[in-house]
Amino acid sequence: MKTNDFFRDCRQLIALVQRKRPAMLPAALLTAVLESAFPFVNIIFGALVLDGLLAGEEGVMTLVWQMIGLDFVLGCSSRVLRWLCRAEALTADELALGAITEKCLTMDYQQLETQKIMDKKARAEEGCTSRGSFFEFVWGFSELLSHGLTVLYALITVSRLFAVISLPADADRWIQVLNSPWLALAAVVLALSAPLACVPLTKWANQINLEWYTVNVDGNRRWAALSHIVEDYRQGKDQRTYGISDMLLAKYERVVDTFCRHAKTFGLRTQTVQSLVAVANLTTVLIAYLFVGLKAMAGLITVGMVSMQVGAITALAGAVREAVALAGRLDLQRKYLKEYTDFLATPSEKYNGTLPVEKRDDGDYELEFRNVSFRYPNQKQWSLRHVSCRLPKGRKLAVAGPNGAGKTTFIKLLCRLYDPTEGEILLNGIDIRKYDYGEYLSLLSVVFQDFKLFSMKLGENVAASVDYDPQQVWKCLEKAGMRERAEKMEAGLETGLYQQKKDGVEISGGEAQKLAIARALYKDAPIVILDEPTAALDPISEYEIYSRFGQIVEGKTSVYISHRMSSCRFCDLVYVFDGGVITQTGTHEELLAQKEGLYARLWQAQAQYY
Amino acid sequence: MEQKKRHTTASNVLYLLRHVTKTDRTYLPALAAALAVKLALPVVATLLPTAAVAALTRGGSMWRYLASIFGLMALYALGTALSGCLTQVMGLKNMRFRIRDFIPIQFRKALTMDFCLLESPEGQKKAAAADVALRRNDVGVEGMLRHLEPWLLNLTGMVLYGAAAVRLDWRILLVLLVMTGANYLIAYWAWRFNIRTREAADTYLQGQRYLRREGEEPANGKDIRLYRMEKWFMTAHNACVMNRDQWRRRFFGRRAMRSVSDSMFLVVRDALAYTMLVKSFLSGNIDAAGFTLTVGVISTFTNWLNEFVAASDDWRYETLEVDDLRDFLEQEDVFNHGPGPDISQVKCPPQVELRDVTFTYPGQEKPVINHLSLTIRPGEKIALVGLNGAGKTTLVKLLSGLYKPDSGDILIDGISAASFNAAGYLRLAGTLYQDVNILPFTIGENVSCREDYDRARVWSCLEQAGLKKAVENMPKGLDTSITQQLERDGVNLSGGQQQRLLFARMLYKDAPLLILDEPTAALDPLAEADLYQKFARTTAGKTSVFISHRLNSTRFCDRVVYMENGCAAEIGTHFGLLEQGGKYADLFQLQSSYYHDEKGTQYENE
């Protein structure tokens, strides 16, 4: 790994957490300070007490009280702090996931639909959930601090081993050897060598883990998609009528079998390495016991010191080992979390201009398509070809044509959800790409064919915002023909829609369509686009919308798309699309007069049965 | 609301064990091995310093010291390696059980239980709760199994060491037991708080999940951008997070009290233990090794106790989740899932008779279907029309066998629909539902709903549905996946194509009773007219019901049923009803008027 990258990324990630939960890092570090001191209370005082007893000292109980007091203070405060850290961390993780959503809400629509971005998003999600979280990451740093302090305390304790006792000249030769500080140094180095020797092993284990993560990415996506199908009860009707359960379960089981196979292979492989490491690390304890024990046997240190020094050496080696493993883990987690920050940093691919849209009270905005052609990404076929047309101010336009003729694509380009492959779209003579996108969108009220409402409050749905003007909302509901129904709801505009909210109401497809129209009205934009707004409506509601249409789009430029040809009658101008090209233009009467034209055929197909 | 059935923790653990031992024969032996190793390991760990101090203070030889250290270390190393491997093995077993054995049980239930139960708000709540128990490895089913080992381990350790501790000083044991009791009570207090507030806390979590899912869904992207909804979504999401944060602080505060209480009791424990030990040592009752051993035993025993309480506490939460899961799995179906009359004796086309059928959605007062009687003759084509909310879609659900009338009966060739086996009855109706649900699988799988299917038949159904050409142009033909959710090279279908695909699926099923709910909503006029033709052809020799707001569709049907407030307000032929001049006639005039000029004559290509 490149050390610079590591530090830069870590700084960034920690700053990110600091912004979300400022209390988390300080709390974690304080916990580390307290927790690292905790074991040494028993290591040091335990030895002192034992030695005091063996020496028959009077003051032993004083030591005992000190030990108990310290134990209480350190133990109690660090454990309470840990809970605080956990609370902070879980909230931080929830906020972190929310940031993924925020990115999805604001990124280019065109990007949102691509597989590449969806994969990137899946990796970002996994990187900050099942593969470690921000909590674990920040906690890792506090652990690092804790290990550092442990090393410090342990070294101070172990330094006693280096003390040279003045021996009588006739002392045994092996006692003299044991008394040498060099031997002490050799023993400590030897004790530390085991964990350090295991570093490559630990790295290997991490490597296996990373590989495991990579082979599962695809399976995880499949798993999520299949689970989603089962969980979506609305699909339950088809699932039963067409007996889909067996196929679905077979697919699920295959995905899970692969997953389990990987878990077995990789899990056991990692475990073997980890067991090796654990056993190798025990040599530290062995060396400590051998050296310290012999020294005690030679009378160079007290018996109490044996447990203290063994404890200290073990703690030292343990801290070194953990610190090395931790550094590896942090580096790994940094890589996973990098997927997260990378996703959030995905740059916008489309040009976003800065021109403000001129505010005009007269709504004098005119849009024009100039020789526009469009092809969806990765598609060979043109969806729109050489389309040129104007949307004259204040006129009612209808767009007709068979399925797949490019009508909806036309709208998508108009909304700049996609940019033309060739040609340009102009607003008052200026390419719409040059305008600030947010400002440009404020000109458009659109009811898409597959419009969406959300399981939040009714009023919020109409205003598309937490704050709304109730009077305005009621007015729009009235215009859309939904007021009466809304008045019947118990909580009025506060009523939740659908069942995600408790006491939410179910609304029918027709009612939903009226709400979507109310939402478009609330936005009060100068250009109104309605894509199949009456598809789910019964004839009476359809009639209501038709008769209100004039009022709805009063003085505004409007585009009306419908397969119900009847709607073309009250529009000023009809554009007929076929195969991505505008084949006919004119008023309803004019077009009907062109008897061989597509428009007349479409009309006739529907009218013949009335 | 019915009272949810609660099981004891023991009952839930046994319930899971019964399942797990059925599919995994080595589960119990592996568990026993893990327990044995993990029980022995701390014993060795306590003996190690004791042996060292003993060898040093009791004047043993150097060789004895070395022998005991080497011997114990070797044991410890073996134990460590074994314990690691067994932990991994148990982890894999527990995971496999959850995802491979238990989730399919949940899925199968969700996919085959009576739809009316699943769709009800109550059923939805149950399904969501059951999902929680299986969603993650540290809660519910897997959590409970994972905690079986520490629970047993700490229980055994507690008993073994408790016996040793009582020999030392009964007061220490008493302090520890009181500590455990207090610990348990505080844990219970926190648990009660959780139970009391869980529903609200879950709402915040579900709220987050909902907003994240909807906010990230590409299909919602257009509306979100056009109406600048990002602020709305994020404000709502962060409010959920913050509400949950506040709840969590209160909950964790209660749990943290356990640490405080523990620390206080440990002061008493240590004060007692050390006073006693120091006194015994000074009076010569124990030596240094004995002192070390006793300190070790007391601290290990405390550890067992604490861990035991912790494992029991975890179970207390998990058992609620497992209860939710069992509650979901053990829901009693309302349809007959046992044997019934032979479905194959139903003639094709069958006669369908609704006899005084009434149906009310649970929790609602007004019946959606209100004493409806109607006989559909074998092979007859019925057009079902009416305003939104008249009960048409509910009638579809009743006829398709998804819902059961509250009173009255549906008779198929004179046999009560309710008497058939539910799964068998589902084969009777091929229904094209109003909401379009396409699976992210291949075209062939979507049409046949099988993985191994009759390719020729799928092609012929696609041809009849008018989708053959489009599929032939796709890179992998029938094996082309729809959407990129599962396969990278998947394709997206237009609204009209989706409608045709579902039509092909209905054809493939070849059921004797066909029900089409608004199949032309997304179709252009040419395709609409084309579908009417196709409909007329496919329904030959079948009994069929056709629902549409486009009243021109009624021309293809033998009789029109105009529904209002859950009743058949008018029944008759199209022309008969027009002549009658009732509500159907009004509705038809309203819609057809757009296609006529002011004088009332139809626009024609003169």
Question: Can you walk me through this structure?
Answer:
The complex is a heterodimer of chains A (610) and B (606). Chain A is built from 21 helices and 10 strands. Chain A has 610 residues and is of the alpha/beta class. Chain A has 3 domains: 3-344, ABC transporter transmembrane region fold, CATH 1.20.1560.10; 365-443 and 526-538 and 554-610, P-loop containing nucleotide triphosphate hydrolases (Rossmann fold), CATH 3.40.50.300; 451-524, P-loop containing nucleotide triphosphate hydrolases (Rossmann fold). In chain A, the strands form 2 sheets. Chain A has a 6-stranded mixed beta sheet with strand order 6-7-8-3-9-10. Chain A has a 4-stranded antiparallel beta sheet with strand order 2-1-4-5, covered by helices on one side. In chain A, α2 packs antiparallel against α3 (60-106), α5 packs antiparallel against α12 and α9 (199-231) packs antiparallel against α11. With 606 residues, chain B is of the alpha/beta class. Chain B folds into 3 domains: 9-201 and 249-329, ABC transporter transmembrane region fold; 349-437 and 512-593, Rossmann fold (3-Layer(aba) Sandwich); 439-492, no CATH class. Helix content of chain B is 62%, strand content 9%. In chain B, α5 runs antiparallel to α11 and α8 runs parallel beside α11 (288-329). The mean pLDDT of chain B is 89. At the A-B interface, α2, α3, α5, α9 and α10 of A face α2, α3, α4, α5 and α8 of B.
Throw out a few tags for this protein.
heterodimer, A: 610 residues, alpha/beta, ABC transporter transmembrane region fold, Rossmann fold, 3 domains, 6-stranded mixed beta sheet, 4-stranded antiparallel beta sheet, 21 helices, 9% strand, B: 606 residues, 20 helices, 10 strands, 62% helix
